[in-house]
Design a protein that fits this description.
The protein has 731 residues and is α/β, with parallel strands linked by helices. It has four domains: 56-322, Alkaline Phosphatase, subunit A, CATH 3.40.720.10; 342-439, no CATH class; 470-559, no CATH class; 572-700, no CATH class. It is 53% helix and 6% strand. It is built from 26 helices and eight strands. The protein has helices at residues 2-28, 67-71, 78-86, 102-111, 118-124, 139-145, 157-161, 182-188, 191-196, 209-217, 222-244, 314-321, 345-366, 388-406, 412-437, 442-469, 471-487, 491-495, 497-528, 541-559, 572-576, 581-601, 607-631, 642-647, 653-677, 682-699; strands at residues 56-62, 89-95, 150-155, 168-172, 202-207, 251-256, 278-282, 307-310. It has an eight-stranded mixed beta sheet with strand order 4-3-5-1-6-7-2-8, sandwiched between helices. α7 (157-161) links the parallel β3 (150-155) and β4. The longest helix is centred in the C-terminal third of the chain and has 32 residues, at 497-528. Mean pLDDT is 80; it is low at 126-130, 680-686 and 705-731. Ethanolamine phosphate transferase involved in glycosylphosphatidylinositol-anchor biosynthesis. Transfers ethanolamine phosphate to the GPI second mannose. This is GPI ethanolamine phosphate transferase 2. Belongs to the PIGG/PIGN/PIGO family. PIGG subfamily. The chain crosses the membrane at residues 12-31, 443-461, 473-494, 500-518, 607-629, 653-673.
C-alpha cells in the first residue's frame, strides 16, 4: 500500500513540474503590446514636413563590433578614426540591452522596440519563421512603401526577419564559426558593383568574421587587428564612393555593431563589453557641422566612448534623416546631435514633435487608463514622489503648455525651450516603455515557483527512507539542493555557477576522505597498537589519494577558465598548451593510445574487432590532426607532428569525419551483436556503456577546449564544412 502511494505521489510530482515550468515561463516572457499597421505622416496644411537630409542609406553591421575596437588606441580602424577627426563621422556608443544576440538586436535596430529573451530561442531556431518582421513597422518597410528597393549581403538573419523584402540578396548561414575569411569575402565582393548601381534606397551589409574570431580566440586574438583593418578598408571603399559617385551624394553611411563581446569573446548577457557596440553616422555632409572629435581617444574601462545612446535610437534617427515616418512601435529617441542637420528651428521642433507623438501613442497603448489631455492635468506635477508614468504625464503637459503659450512664434529662445521640453518627455517616455517592455508577471512567477516547491515536498515522503538510511549523504544532498536553489535568485551567482560546484563537490570529497582515513587509521591502530608511547604513523593510501586529489583539483580548476569574471584569465588550454605544443600532442597521443588499448583488451576479443578498433582510432587521431592543421595551425607550428599533418592536408575533412563516424558505428553494432550472441550479463552491459565513453573520446575533434566556440550556435560540425564559405551565427 505504501509503495502504491509513493508511486502516485511521484507521478503527481512529475506532472506538477512541467506545469510549474509553463506557468513560470508565461510570467517570465511578458506579452508586449504592439500597435498594428504602418506609420504615416499626419499633418495639417500649416505643418511642413522637414525635408529628408538623405535619400539613401548604406547600413553596415559588423557583428560584435565593440566600441573600443573602433575608438581605442589599439584599434585597426585607422581610416575611420581619421573620419572622426575630420568631422565626417559622428561617433557614439550604442547601449544594447540584453539579450545581446543577433536576432533581438536586429529587431531593436529596425523596429526601435525592446526585444525579449524569447527572441534568444528564435535566434537559435534556424528554420523558425514566426520571428519575421514582415508585418511589423520598420524603417525598411517604410523605405519599401516609399517605392525604394533594398539589397542585402551577409548574415541570413536579415532574410529570415524580412522574407521577400530585398531586391537583391546573398545570405550566409549561421553555424560555421571557423571561417574568418570567406564569410566576409562573400559580402565584400558585392560592394564595388552595388556602389555603381543607383536603383537601391538601402544597401545593407552584415559582416561576421570579427564575431567568429571573438568566439574562437577572444577579443585579444592576433587575428583581431587584421580583421579590423579589413573592415576599415570596407569603410574606406564606401566613403570614397560617397565622395566620388554623384548618385551617392545624398547617401547616409551607418557603421555599427549589433552587440559587443566580453573578454572571453562571448555575448548574450549584460556585461559592459557585451552591451557596448560602436555606432557611427558617416557622410561628407557632416563636416559642415564642424563637430570634430579626438580619435583615437583614451581608454575607458566601461567602454562608454563619446556619447552613449540607446541602440533603439537608431530607428527614429534614420527615419528622420531619410524623411520617413517613425515606425509605430519604436521606443527610440532622435539623437540630438543630428538635429543640427536642419538649419531651421521649426524643422527641428517638428522632428522632435513627430517623435514625441509617435512615442506618446505607444505609451497610451500600454497605459490606456491614463489621460494625456491638457485639460486633465493633475496637480501632482509639483510633487517630488512621482511614478514613472506620472513623470511622463507631467513632461507631456509641459510640452503642451509651452506649445499653447508660444503659438506659431518659434524664435530662438522659444525653440530652445520647446526642444528641451520635448527631449525631456522623450527620455522619460523611453525609460518608462523600455522598463514596461521587460516587466515580468510576478504573480505567475510566484505561482510557478510555489507549484515547483510543492512538487519537491511531495517527493520528500518517498525519499524519506533513502535519506534516513544514508543520513550523511542525504543531508548533504538536501543542503546542496537548497543552496543551489537559493543561489539561482542572484544573477552574479548564476554567471559564476561553476564556483559553487567546485566547492560543493570538493567539500563532499574531503568529507569522504576524512571518513575513510579515520576508518583506515582505526584499523591500523587495532592491528599494531602503541609502540614506545606513540601511535605508529604509516603512509597509507588515503594520504596518497588526498595528495593526488589536491593536485588534480588544482589542475582542473586552471584547465579552462569559464564564467564571466575570470573567463579572460590565463588558463592551461589557452596559455600553456599553445606555447608547449610537444606536451599538448603527447597528451593527445596518450589519450588515443589508452582508448585503443581499452578497445583492444576490454571489449569483444576477435581479430576483426581489433583490426577495426586500430583503424578507427588511427583515423580519429588523424582527423583531429587534420582539423587542427586547417582550423588552428598555430597549435602545430613547432610540433613534431607537423610533417604528419602536411601529409593529411589534402584529405577532405567532411569525408574524413564521415569515415570516422561510420567506423565507430560499426564498432557499436558489432559490440551489441557479440554481446547478444553470448547472452550478455550485467558485466557485459557495462562494457557496452564503456564503448559509448570511448566513442565520445574518439569524436572529440578539438585539440584544446580553448578553441571551442562558446557560442550557443557552435555545434560539432562547425569546422568540418568551413570551406563551404559559410559561418557561425552571432549569438
Amino acid at each position: 500500500m505504501k509503495v502504491a502511494r509513493s508511486k502516485w505521489t511521484i507521478l503527481i510530482a512529475n506532472i506538477l513540474v512541467p506545469i510549474s515550468i509553463l506557468v513560470f515561463s508565461s510570467g517570465f516572457f511578458p506579452y508586449k503590446t504592439l500597435l498594428t499597421g504602418f506609420a504615416t505622416h499626419k499633418h495639417t496644411i500649416s505643418d511642413q514636413i522637414p525635408p529628408g537630409v538623405f535619400d539613401k542609406v548604406i547600413f553596415m553591421v559588423v557583428d560584435a563590433l565593440r566600441s573600443d575596437f573602433v575608438y581605442s588606441q589599439h584599434s585597426g580602424f585607422l581610416f575611420t578614426q581619421s573620419l572622426i577627426r575630420s568631422g565626417a563621422a559622428l561617433p557614439f556608443t550604442a547601449y544594447a540591452s540584453a539579450p545581446t544576440v543577433t536576432m533581438p538586436r536586429l529587431k531593436a535596430i529596425t523596429t526601435g522596440s525592446v526585444p525579449s529573451f524569447l527572441d534568444v530561442i528564435l535566434n537559435i531556431a534556424e528554420a523558425d519563421t514566426s520571428s519575421t518582421l514582415m508585418h511589423q513597422d520598420t524603417w525598411l518597410a517604410q523605405l519599401k512603401a516609399k517605392g525604394g528597393k533594398l539589397v542585402m549581403y551577409g548574415d541570413d538573419t536579415w532574410l529570415k526577419l524580412f522574407p521577400g523584402m530585398f531586391h537583391r540578396a546573398d545570405g550566409t548561414t549561421s553555424f560555421f564559426v571557423s571561417d574568418f575569411t570567406e564569410v566576409d569575402n562573400n559580402v565584400t565582393r558585392h560592394i564595388p558593383n552595388e556602389l555603381l548601381q543607383d536603383d537601391w534606397s538601402a544597401f545593407i551589409m552584415h559582416y561576421l568574421g570579427l564575431d567568429h574570431i571573438g568566439h574562437k580566440a577572444g577579443p585579444n586574438s592576433p587575428y583581431m587587428i587584421s580583421k579590423q583593418h579589413e573592415m576599415d578598408s570596407v569603410v574606406s571603399m564606401v566613403y570614397t564612393a560617397l565622395e566620388q559617385e554623384k548618385h551617392l551624394e545624398t547617401t547616409l553611411f551607418v557603421l555599427c555593431g549589433d552587440h559587443g563581446m566580453n573578454e572571453a569573446g562571448n555575448h548574450g548577457g549584460s556585461s559592459v563589453g557585451e552591451t557596448s557596440p560602436a555606432l557611427l553616422f558617416i557622410s561628407p555632409k557632416f563636416q559642415r557641422l564642424e563637430t570634430r572629435n579626438d580619435s583615437p581617444t583614451e581608454e575607458f574601462s566601461d567602454l562608454q566612448y563619446y556619447h552613449t545612446v540607446e541602440q533603439t535610437n537608431i530607428t527614429p534617427t534614420l527615419a528622420g534623416l531619410l524623411g520617413l515616418p517613425i515606425p509605430l512601435n519604436s521606443l527610440g529617441v532622435f539623437i540630438p546631435e543630428l538635429l543640427a542637420m536642419w538649419d531651421h528651428g521649426p524643422h527641428r521642433i517638428h522632428m522632435l514633435l513627430e517623435n514625441a507623438k509617435q512615442l506618446l501613442g505607444a505609451v497610451k497603448g500600454s497605459f490606456p487608463s491614463y489621460s494625456f489631455e491638457f485639460d486633465s492635468m493633475p496637480v501632482i506635477c509639483s510633487s517630488q514622489s512621482l511614478s514613472d508614468i506620472e513623470r511622463v504625464q507631467c513632461a507631456w503637459f509641459r510640452v503642451l503648455e509651452i506649445l499653447n503659450g508660444s503659438g506659431a512664434n518659434h524664435d530662438s529662445e522659444a525653440s530652445s525651450e520647446i526642444e528641451s521640453a520635448l527631449l525631456l518627455f522623450l527620455r522619460n517616455a523611453q525609460k518608462l516603455m523600455s522598463s514596461a517592455a521587460s516587466d515580468y508577471d510576478l504573480i505567475r512567477l510566484y505561482v510557478g515557483l510555489s507549484i515547483s516547491g510543492f512538487a519537491i515536498l511531495l517527493t520528500l515522503f518517498p525519499a524519506k527512507r533513502l535519506l534516513v538510511n544514508f543520513a550523511p549523504a542525504g543531508m548533504f544532498l538536501g543542503f546542496s539542493i537548497l543552496s543551489y536553489s537559493t543561489m539561482m535568485f542572484a544573477s552574479s551567482y548564476v554567471e559564476e555557477e561553476q564556483q559553487f560546484w567546485y566547492w560543493i563537490s570538493m567539500g563532499w570529497v574531503v568529507y569522504l576522505h576524512v571518513k575513510y582515513a579515520g576508518y583506515f587509521h582505526g584499523k591500523s591502530i587495532q592491528k599494531s597498537g602503541p609502540a614506545d608511547g606513540h601511535w605508529p604513523f604509516e603512509p597509507s593510501p588515503p594520504w596518497f589519494g588526498a595528495a593526488a586529489l589536491a593536485v588534480s583539483y588544482r589542475v582542473l580548476r586552471r584547465w579552462n577558465q569559464t564564467g564571466q569574471k575570470y573567463a579572460a584569465q590565463p588558463d592551461i588550454t589557452g596559455s600553456f598548451f599553445p606555447s608547449h605544443q610537444h606536451t599538448l600532442w603527447a597528451l593527445v597521443i596518450l589519450t588515443y593510445a589508452d582508448t585503443c588499448s581499452h578497445l583492444l583488451f576490454n571489449l569483444p576479443a576477435s581479430v576483426l574487432w581489433r583490426f577495426v578498433s586500430c583503424v578507427v582510432t588511427l583515423a580519429a587521431f588523424l582527423f583531429k590532426l587534420s582539423l587542427a592543421a586547417s582550423d588552428s595551425p598555430e597549435l602545430l607550428g613547432n610540433s613534431f607532428l607537423q610533417p604528419v599533418a602536411m601529409v593529411t592536408d589534402g584529405m577532405h575533412l567532411l569525408y574524413h569525419a564521415r569515415m570516422v563516424l561510420c567506423g565507430i558505428s560499426l564498432l557499436m553494432i558489432y559490440s551489441l551483436y557479440a554481446g547478444k550472441a553470448r547472452e550478455t550479463t550485467h558485466k557485459g552491459r557495462g562494457k557496452c556503456s564503456s564503448l559509448k565513453h570511448y566513442r565520445m573520446i574518439l569524436t572529440e575533434k578539438r585539440a584544446t577546449e580553448h578553441h571551442l566556440s562558446r557560442d550557443s550556435h557552435s555545434f560539432p560540425v562547425d569546422a568540418i564544412e568551413s570551406d563551404e564559405h559559410t559561418r557561425v551565427s552571432s549569438f
